[in-house]
Amino acid sequence: MSRFASTLLVCPTLNPGAEFDNWLKAYSHQKDKPASALIIDSSSTDGSIDAAKDYGFQIEVIARETFSHGGTRQKVVEGAGAFGYLIFLTQDAILRGDLALTELMTAFEDPDVAAVYGRQLPRENAGEIETHARLYSYPDQSSIRSIKDIETQGMKAAFLSNSFAAYRRDALLQVGGFHADVIFGEDMHAAARLLKVGYKIAYAADACVYHSHQYSVVQEMRRYFDMGVLHAREPWLRQELGSAEGEGMKFVVSELGFLARHAFWKIPEGLLRTAVKYAGFRLGLIERHIPLNIKKKLTMNPAYFKSN
Q1: How far apart are CA 69 and CA 261, in angstroms?
Q2: Where are the beta strands (DSSP E) in the chain?
Q3: What pTM was computed for the model?
C-alpha cells in the first residue's frame, strides 16, 4: 500500500491572495496525493481559500490570535491518529512538476528517516540576494544526516523547513512533537530532538517547490531577532549543536562571491543586510533585558510575547 494512503497534508493559511490559485493548481497536478488534505485558516478575509474545497481540501478556521507556528501544527499532529505521515506546506510554497510530493515521500524508504524536507527554489523574478539565499540553503544534491553529522556540520545538521516537509507521525510524537512555546523554528527544534534520539533527517533535492521572500532590511532584522530569541530561550540548541555564527559567516562569504559574479553593485546592500541580521540576532540573544513594548516592535511575531 502506498504511503500516501496514510498521509495527511497540512497547510496553514492567512489571506494567501490570488497566488493561492496557482498553489491549488500545482497541488492538483501531483501524480500522488495524500489520503486527506487540510487547510488551517487563521480567519482569512480575502476569500482566496474558498476554492480549496473544490480541490478536495477540508478547511478548519481558527481565530487569528490563536495561531502559533508550533502550537497550531502540534494540534494537528495530536489529532491525526489515522495517519502515519504528515506533510506540511506553506501557502506560498508552490509545488514544481507533478512528482514533488512523490519524491519527498520516497525518503521514508529508509526506516531511520523521521523527517524529510524538499528543495526550495527562488520564485520567478527573484533578485540576486533572494536567489542566492535559496541556492545556498537548498543545493541540488540530496543528503541524509544523523547525529554523527553534528560534529562536522553543527547547527546545519538539524536544518529543516516546514515550508515543505514531511514527518513520521510516531517519531514526531516520540520526541514531543512541535513545541508551542518557541517563537519560530519549530521545524529545526523538532529536527534537533529527532537527531538526539537516533533518527535521521533527509533532504530530497528532487522534490521541489518555488518559495522565496524579498524581505526588507527591517524584516530581515526582525526575523533574525526572533532567531536570537529562539536560541536564548532554548540554550541547549547552541550547547549541543554549536553556535549559529560559524554557519552565518560561511553564508556571507558565499553571498559576496555570488554577488561579485552576478550583481556586484548589490554588494553594499548585501553587507548592510548582513550587519542588520547580525544585530537583530544579538539583540534576540539578550531579549530578557529588553522591555516588552520594545520586543513587540523588534519581532515578526508580536503575539508570541503576549502569551510568553
Answers
A1: 37
A2: 7-13, 36-41, 58-61, 85-89, 94-95, 113-121, 143-145, 164-168, 200-210
A3: 0.94
